[in-house]
Design goal:
Blueprint (H helix, E strand, L loop, with lengths): L10 H7 L2 H5 L49 E9 L4 H5 L14 E8 L2 E8 H19 L5 H12 L19 H19 L2 H4 L2 H6 L17 E7 L20 E8 L3 E5 L6 E6 L5 E3 L2 H4 L4 E5 L4 E5 L3 H18 L16 E10 L1 H5 L11 H7 L3 E6 L20 H10 L3 E7 L10 H9 L5 E6 L2 H4 L10 E4 L3 E5 L24 H11 L11 E5 L2 E5 L12 H6 L4 H7 L19 E4 L2 E4 L39 E2 L1 E6 H21 L30 E11 L1 H4 L5 E2 H11 L4 E6 L15 H15 L4 E5 L16 H14 L6 H9 L7 E12 L2 E6 L1 E2 L2 E5 L3 E5 L5 H4 L6 E8 L2 E6 L2 E6 H15 L15 H23 L10 H9 L3 H4 L1 H8 L6 E3 L17 H4 L7
Parallel strand pairs: 12-13, 13-14, 21-29, 25-26, 26-27
Antiparallel strand pairs: 1-2, 2-3, 4-5, 4-10, 5-6, 6-7, 8-9, 9-10, 11-22, 11-23, 12-15, 15-16, 16-22, 17-18, 19-20, 23-24, 23-32, 25-30, 27-28, 27-35, 30-31, 31-32, 33-34
Length: about 1050
Amino acid sequence: MLQHSEPTSSTLQLVANDMTEIMETLDTRELDLEDGEYDTADTNVAAEHLPFKVIYHTVGFKESQAKVFLSSPITAKILEVERFTSAQDRFNITAQRSVNKSLPAVFKIELKHGEFTWLVKRKEKHFMDLHRELRTYKTFMRLPLPSRSHTIKRHTGERSEVRQIPNLPRGGGDELAREEQVSSRRKQLEDYLNKLLKMPMYRNYHATMEFIDVSQLSFIHDLGPKGLEGMVLKRSGGHRIPGLNCCGRSNICYHWSKRWLVVKDSFLVYMKPDSGAISFVMLVDKEFGIKMDSKDTETTHGVRVDSLSRSLVLKCSSYRHARWWGQSLEGFVQKHGAAFLTDHRFGSFARQEENIPAKWYVCGKTYMEDVNGKTHGGNIADALEEAKEEIFITDWWLSPEIFLKRPVVEGNRWRLDCVLKRKAQQGVKVFVMLYKEVELALGINSGYSKRTLRHLHPNIKVMRHPDHVSSAVYLWAHHEKIIIIDQSVAFVSGIDLAYGRWDDREHRLTWSRGACTHTHLEQASSASSSNAAPPNGSGAVSQSNGKSIFTVTDSVDQPKLKSQGRMKRTKFSIRRHLQKHGLAQVDSDSDLETEESSGSVRTGVGELFGNTRFWHGKDYCNFVYRDWIQLEKPFDDFIDRHTTPRMPWHDIASVVHGSAARDVARHFIQRWNFTKLVKPKYRSLSFPYLLPKSHTTAGEQRYQVPDCIPTRVQILRSASDWSAGIKYHEESIHNAYVHAIKNSQHFVYIENQFFISCADNRHVFNKIGDAIAERIIRAYREGKRYRVYVVTPLLPGFEGDINTGGGSAIQAVMHFNYRTMNRGEHSIISQLRKEMGDQWMNYISIAGLRTHAELEGKLVTELIYVHSKMLIADDNTVIIGSANINDRSMLGKRDSEVAVIVEDSETVAAVMDGQPYQAGRYGLQLRLECFRMILGAFTDASIDVSDPISDHFYKEVWMATCARNATIYQKVFRCLPSSDVRNILELEGYLAKEGLEKEDPARAREELRKIRGFLVQFPLQFLCEQNLLPPIGSKEAMVPMEVWT
């Protein structure tokens, strides 16, 4: 309902108060403009659709530049006139009416504007108030005030044509006695309103917009249907913020503020009328509810709106007003937002979405950069380039200087910070949320990342959370890794946009010669003969054989590599190597001697030799050997590339579209708005509230990642009060894992960074390990074939020298990993042994990944760090995300996580246990990619991975490959971890015996040729006689046990 505030000292009212005599001479029923009077044209060019980015440019409600309306006309129709005799009758119609209690008639008006339809209720008094204010406005426009904006309006009005202006005939007051009076008055008011809305001068006036309940958020297509709007008084407080018990419930704490409330299908938002700023957003969720009783609202004529994050109390002008607001609000949300009001499968905030285009990625290369050399491969780099409105990013760790496309032959074009700056300059809003680490415990330097990004452009906003002291959150982290483009494309993965994550299926250990295979030379040949860019720091296009390569130099901004001096000593020229082997033409005698002009490309990170340089500066890493340091110097090496191999990184990612992407965005928005609320430094208008796009427009895909598969998708998460500001925690990822395992029929394949489970309800609580044991026992009792494959890192990802035991942090995680696998009564293998003895080996295999190479002529080996968080069941169900198999990720109350469960809706012919089987396209293709890579089937066509549970595959391919590779690596390198070392005392003797790589390198090379893929048996007996828990007195022993689980 239209509410009028007390008179203020605004210019309009001061002028109006001084014009009493003029006003008395005007007909109060008319707004006639005679010759020379002003019908100001619509100064804003209306559009068929208002762009979504309008939400970031709202202005005060009385500002003339406010963009509200579309190009289509607005029509009004009075549907009915409500005539009741008491407040009770208004909502409970009875036959008995008292003439003595007659009430003013209320006109129910339906308005249409473009695709939008909405209802308002107004009494005749409100029409008269509007008419009176418009008369004042008209008179004000006639005055030649000396302001520039006023002069422009007047001159615009003089140029406009004279039109018939609506009259507002005098009526009989609010009480209409006879039906014919009602009908006549209804028609008069309807005609008046329709004529008024055709005139831009009056339609764009703030009082008219308030009368018809519209604002700058009303007609934005991507915000969905138009709901109830209007001016209300809202009470402060009511937020669910951990650590605050008051929540604005005490009379001492709260105050009332005037706000414009907007109701949409999945959220409520209120704005400050004077500035137009969005000052709060409430998402609709399963706890959403409306209460109107005074005992619930603690105020007269109040409405209370509840959700998981807040109890919002609104004050209305009357009982009828409160009932109209409460019932309309509840009815609109029930009609348009019903999907958000229920608890969905697994307890998730999001429902299952059908026919969602989805795609998986194995390793960071395909995730970050181009796929198979296509111009648009459907990865992060290409998707970021397609952004038109918003980019949302949240990571546990983000390194601004990483390259998304490698090798670097286009200068800094595909460096993450350069991509984000380029999009921000194009008007795209970039919002980044980073985990704020405890600096004494972690060295990821999120402060540097924040400073670097926010200084790129004003359109890039960066938040960090939590503040450890104020929130009392010291142990838990924001661990999600999601990237969202225009709320329509969402990447959900375990891959941070950070150092060390970029890798491909070859999992190289070295940065130059050892990794430069014949295939790489062929890929490099087209770029190797390009001319060097000008040394003056400017961009250039170098021509080579009719092809152009764009090179950029940013040498002023970025330091040279620390190891560059040493690199020159061992410089490797792709062109010279190609010429030496007859793969490239020698144009002159000097070609074999000239390397500077033919084999290098200058960029801001020093010289690239050919295009074999994949890892620059801090990106070349081995974090078990040495953790990252001096991250503010991104292009300085911190380990010696010539003596220490890098640690390869194996990971899995996914992308979803449409409604599923909307759900991922909704989670990000909830976290962003919560962080803005709880951290005072983010409450300024420079950090805007974010609004979720409507699911009704989710199918209007402007950009879609190529090669997607239609699937059924549901978004899962771990979230709680500290991480998302919600009343009840959510552990839908945990529930989905347990459900997928229990309901699997043939096999489960798991890749995960951790394997900590099997609940004892003292130290470990998640039930994933127990579900695995129970499912295997069921298969054993039923006499059915069933397999479980687990691939996990051979060592935890903490800095430490495994040759001396690894240190307390590594050992603490190892303790809980082994406790899940085979040590103690709660372990999976212990549970299985009780039921079936040694037959457990026919059901479950636990493995790791390892590889080898030559570095400076020396044989080296290193484990491949498995960072994936993935489950595949029966080739038709896949879970991919950021959640590790441990309590931190799974319980919901600890680390925050996001994952996606993808269930196939399209099937293809496959094989299961030797029988024809209809497998899902998505699940089957992902498993085949993983199996072929880790088993070596890409280089050995004889390896058949099509049947995942047959005895032939399980025993003669999978188990045999595990055992053979592990035996060869131990024989050649005497590597750790090894089951031959059962306690710390045996370490020295084990390492004292040299491997073949030192005794007989030639024979070692012969043995290594027998290696297939990367799969190795997990050393289940490593340090089995050692107590791996942190020793008393160590700093690791001082932290709670939950840190390690």
